[in-house]
Amino acid sequence: MSLYDLKGKDLITTCDWTDEEIEYIFKLAEQIKEKHYSGESFKPLLDKSYAMMFFNNSTRTRHSFETGVTQLGGHAQFVRPDTMRLSIDPVPTGKGESIKDTANVLSRFVDGLGIRLIAESVSEFGMANKIIKEFAEHADIPVINMMSELWHPCQALTDIFTLREKEANESLKKKKMVIHWAYSPHARDWASVQETAALGARNGMDVVVAQPDIYDLVPEAVEAGKKYAEMSGGSYEVTNDLDGALEGADYVYPRNWITLDYFEHGKEKEKEIAKDYKDWRFTKERWEKNTGGKAKLMHCMPIDPNNEADVELIDDPEISILYDEAENRLHVQKAILTALMAGKF
Ligand code: CP
Predict the structure, then answer these.
(1) pTM more than 0.85
(2) SS3 assignment for 247-301
(3) Which domains are present in the chain?
(4) Which one in 13, 14, 90, 303 has a CA-CA gap of 20 to 30 Å to 191?
(5) Which atom of ligand 1 is nearest to the CA of 61?
(6) Which atom of ligand 1 is nearest the CA belonging to 59?
(7) Which residue is closest in CA terms to ligand 1's atom 4?
């Protein structure tokens, strides 16, 4: 496989990619990280532009992509879509132009397009991911999902890349990753946990999703995780027993997410429902008693301190790998951008 094979490809979810393509990104990210630390100049995106449409706020995704494109020799254009002519309504109003026209026009200017659009900006289940796919269908340039309500491929690739580093690039097979629903008033999307659970299972991990019964993940994502586990020799289990799930965990990812009824009853009701599950937190006591003081704390960030996890765990560099995951967004996304936008250098 060469870089030419990935040039022009979209990244909506890693579920659309082959194992070989994913492995290629991991290897390239390793090389790019080495170049970064050795100070070797690497500019495959010279004279190329990457447009970034952020319908929603971001710290890590925005700054890692923008910095990454600069380091690769290109230019990243940050745009709030409400400053464009664009309308994402199924029938655009007189004030906006269609996704089709916007995608076609941007394809004439830039070499890649990233989009973040999540649940809070759409009215129906699955609509944000569908809109990003619609851009990809019409654009002649690669489209990167910078997080929809369903999938966050750049986060998941980074999470698994980071775990592989932590295991000294040994296999992740049979390493236990517990992803558990955690209390927070912030009502987060399903994207990060779903994609990381699926990609973890695909890498042979024993993935356990622990959640109160009403917090089922999206069935399509659970099916993907189970299918990958069967193929890789890993496992994908769903349980409502948090303390049992944490037994023997190597990695714990405590994260809030919304119920599947979010679009029926809205964000305020979600916050009310979550209050019944305030004991769903990754505490220092659970870390000591249930994981035997051995598990590492992982998280996509932003983390909600003392809700999702105790601040003592978050602030302990022997336990928390949060900042390493955040940094690796830069290196992994540089690999994605190089592969999809440059193809050769
Ligand atoms: N994890 C992540 O995507 O962070 P941001 O929302 O800050 O981009």
Answers:
(1) yes
(2) CCCCEEEEECCCCCCHHHHHHHHHHHHHHHHCCCCECHHHHHHCCCCCCEECCCC
(3) 14-151+326-342 (3.40.50.1370), 155-322 (3.40.50.1370)
(4) 90
(5) 8
(6) 7
(7) 60
Report the run of H or E that residue 337 belongs to, with start and end: helix 322-337
The distance in angstroms from the start CA to the end CA of the chain is 16
Percent of the chain surpassing pLDDT 90:
94
DSSP symbols for 16-74: GS-HHHHHHHHHHHHHHHHHHHHT----TTTT-EEEEEESS--SHHHHHHHHHHHHTT-
Q: Is the CB of 322 under 6 A from ligand 1?
A: no
Structure tokens at 40: 């070797």
344 confidence band (pLDDT: 50, 70, 90)? low
Residue-wise pLDDT tens digits, 223-244: 999 999 999 999 999 999 999 9
From the list 167, 202, 281, 193, the residue with the least C-alpha distance to 19 is 202
Q: What is the pLDDT of residues 85-135, one digit of tens each?
A: 999 987 777 678 999 999 999 999 999 999 999 999 999 999 999 999 999
